[in-house]
Amino acid sequence: MNHRVGQSVFALVVGLAVAVIAYQWITNPAPRQQRQIEELAVQASRELLAEAVGVGSLEIVDPLAPNRKVGKVYIYAEEPGWAVSGYYRRDDNDRWHPYLLHMTADLEMHAFKAEDEALDIKE
Q1: Which residues contact 112 (CB under 8 A, 6 or more apart)?
Q2: If you ran DSSP here, which 8-state letter would residue 106 be given?
Q3: Which run of H or of E encompasses 111?
Q4: Which of 7, 9, 87, 122 has its CA 20 to 30 A from that of 44?
Q5: Which of 56, 104, 59, 53 is nearest to 78 (CA)?
Q6: What value, to the nearest 5°, has the Cα angle with vertex 113 and ends 111 and 117?
Q7: How do strand 59-61 and strand 97-103 relate by DSSP bridges?
Q8: Nearest to 112 by CA among 66, 25, 121
């Protein structure tokens, strides 16, 4: 009888601990804030990419619009800014061009690398 009471108390304590940890994890605002900051950086990188390529309409694969068939994309927090990688193409007849864009903390372009013969920029 005493053994069953101990099991019940243990199960209750473990269940409450899991519930408290899950509640704290779900209500933690830090991951949502980090995601919003990353989204702003990717949106800024899209504008900077369009300016660097010099074309108004680009098809872009980036962390906000991933396409695993094209390739992997990343966003990295760097000191003091961001690095965003992805792919772009001008139209359906163009091939996908990989790019890496480094931005400052103010979301201004610091460096740009792309494999695109039209730009004459290579890694």
Answers
A1: 48, 49, 52, 99, 100, 101, 102, 121
A2: T
A3: strand 109-114
A4: 122
A5: 104
A6: 140
A7: unpaired
A8: 121
DSSP line for 4-38: HHHHHHHHHHHHHHHHHHHHHHHH-SHHHHHHHHH
In the numeric block, which tokens belong to residue 112? 């740009």
**Please, what is the average pLDDT of the chain?**
88
Whether the predicted pLDDT of 1 surpasses 80: no
Tell me if 114 sits within 8 A of 94, measured CB to CB: no
Whether 63 and 86 have beta carbons less than 8 Å apart is answered as yes
- The predicted pLDDT at position 99 comes to 94
Do 91 and 56 meet the contact criterion of CB atoms below 8 Å apart? no
Amino acid at 110: H
For residues 95 and 98, what is the distance between their CA atoms, to the nearest angstrom? 10
According to the model, what pLDDT value does residue 2 have?
67
